[in-house]
Every structure is written in C-alpha cells, then in structure tokens.
C-alpha cells in the first residue's frame, strides 16, 4: 500500500475536484461619526473591490443619500483617498474606518 504524506489541508487540496484559488476578503468596521450614538456596520468585501463601492454601500446602510457627500478617515483623523482597492485601504489604514458627512469635515 502507498501512503500519502503531508498535512490534511495539502491532501484535501490535492484531491479537491476544483483547483481554483479562493478570493481573499477584508473586513471593515465603518462608524458614522455624525451620530451621537456612533453607530457602526461591519462590512466584508473582496480585496479587489474598489473602495468607492464600499463607501457607496456603507452610505446606503446608514441612510446617507450619496457616497459623494461623506469623507472616510482613520481613528486619528487621517483622510483616506477612496480611489484604491479595499485591500490596499485595509493594509494602509486598518479595519476601523470613520465616515464623516462632508458638511461636518473639519468641525469639532
């Protein structure tokens, strides 16, 4: 008898009927800072997703009419350029994203 050596995952990969790579995902915790209750939504998307689409979806979840009217920042207030992929944003800034309506950007 011939024995198969290796880890279980290697064996399962070898014998799997379809050899296609799984798409990696990133998860963001989007907080709406304009609301005193600081509501948040956890959004999971593919790494390749454009961050503008993520912002559009988040705006819709919070009832904001247009994603063009919000700014995305980090916890410490660093502005985020949304013309990148979700994976790049996650690597550069992490998962905690704050959304600020543009009419309140710069106000305390």
Strand order of the largest sheet: 2-1-4-3
The overall strand count is 4
Determine the strand fraction and express it as a percent band.
15-25%
Q: Give helix % range.
A: 25-40%
Number of helices: 3
Helix-strand pattern: HEEHEHE
Helix-and-strand structural type: alpha+beta
The rounded Rg comes to 19 Å
The unreliable regions are 1-17
Give the overall form: globular
Q: Sheet bearing the most strands, described?
A: 4 strands, mixed
Question: How would you name the oligomeric state of the polypeptide chains in this document?
Answer: single chain
Mean pLDDT: 82
Give the distance, in angstroms, between the N- and C-terminal Cα atoms.
Answer: 73 Å
How does this structure look, described?
The chain is an alpha+beta fold and 108 residues long. Helices cover 25% and strands 23% of the residues. It contains 3 helices and 4 strands; from the N terminus they run αββαβαβ. The protein has helices at residues 8-15, 51-61, 86-93; strands at residues 25-32, 40-46, 70-73, 96-101. A hairpin with a 7-residue loop joins strand 1 and strand 2. Residues 1-17 have low confidence and may be disordered.
